[in-house]
Design goal:
Order of helices and strands: EHEEEHE
CATH topology: SH3 type barrels
Distance between the termini: 13 Å
CATH superfamily: Ferrous iron transport protein A (FeoA)
Oligomer: single chain
Strand order of the largest sheet: 4-3-2-1-5
Number of helices: 2
Number of domains: 1
Helix content: 10-25%
Shape: globular
Length: 79
């Protein structure tokens, strides 16, 4: 399943990221935030606008706003 489909509150581990879908500077920013393969994440909130963009995800003790297109590039496994 991809990160955008993860239910709110459920913890998962990022199994893979399709970096080719993302712009190089976006990938660099996500890696700097610790969002990469092996990271444990959970969806804290979903946006209220059409398409439920953005997602608020928790990585460690940090909450990060993430666009749905970025979340679609990440495959997650239940932790």
């Amino acid at each position: 399943m991809t990160l955008d489909l993860l239910p709110v509150g459920q913890t998962a581990r990022i199994a893979a990221v399709d970096w080719s879908v993302l712009a190089p500077d976006e990938g660099k920013r996500l890696r700097a935030l610790g969002i990469d393969s092996g990271a444990k994440v959970s969806v804290a909130h979903r946006g209220v606008f059409a398409g439920a963009d953005p997602l608020a995800i928790t990585v460690g003790r940090m909450t990060v706003a993430l666009r749905r297109v970025h979340a679609c590039a990440m495959t997650v496994e239940a932790a």
